[in-house]
């Protein structure tokens, strides 16, 4: 029941695809007294496999998506994109709402609350993927610690049916096992915003945003980007590769497999947040970690965190 993405063969081993990206502007999402906004940008990605492969992207003008629904004055901090049963869906990491984007409007569909589903807080949605006909929605996958205590609500994952029925899944053991596998001690952390299931390969793929061997520190965290590509068939045993060089200020915030490439080629977004400065980069590489398009900065100094092929 999935719609097929736009694919146009343009001869000589060249293929064109339509790509949509969306922002999480954090507090800058507030656009008026009762209005919050996100920016969407559509592009045309051209893949030329005869030129060793070569990728170029042309972008259309930006469009604003606005909403009045908010939680404590925050909203429209959109963190991913997918197409599920022919609907373009996006999660808001502030309100816990999964909404449909249709005709440049945002239409709320399902609310997710945090942790095992019995909390009073909204789920901090950071990634989405589809497996076995279910929409999977996950968060950072780390324990949240403050001087007042700690919780593991962001270590749960939600599955949603096409009818909007939600099931809460405990991924604490999975996240901890993955963290240990890549050599991060218990006091450190591995944060996730970019996760996909590949039905073609029967594997989960994770591009962590941050990796740290020490406890969370806001200033250090801004420069804890990673180049890990982790994969697993059963979420019990893991493999990892590295992709290019680590640029500490940049961490993966979303990725998608380029259609029709046997889930071999990945296009990914990297976000930078250092002080008040934000930027987004787009890159393309294969699942062996070979880079095809080096980090290319996107115009506008926006933080784009969702990406999908339409």
From TrEMBL:
Protein name: Apyrase
SUPFAM superfamilies documented for this protein: Apyrase (SSF101887)
PANTHER family, A to Z: APYRASE (PTHR13023), SOLUBLE CALCIUM-ACTIVATED NUCLEOTIDASE 1 (PTHR13023:SF3)
Cofactor dependence: Ca(2+)
Alphabetized InterPro entries for the sequence: Apyrase, Apyrase_sf
Family: Belongs to the apyrase family.
GO BP term, pick one: proteoglycan biosynthetic process
Record key words, sorted: Calcium, Hydrolase, Metal-binding
Residues reported to bind Ca(2+): 79-80, 126, 193, 253, 305
A Pfam family annotated for this UniProt entry: Apyrase
GO MF term list: calcium ion binding; GDP phosphatase activity; UDP phosphatase activity
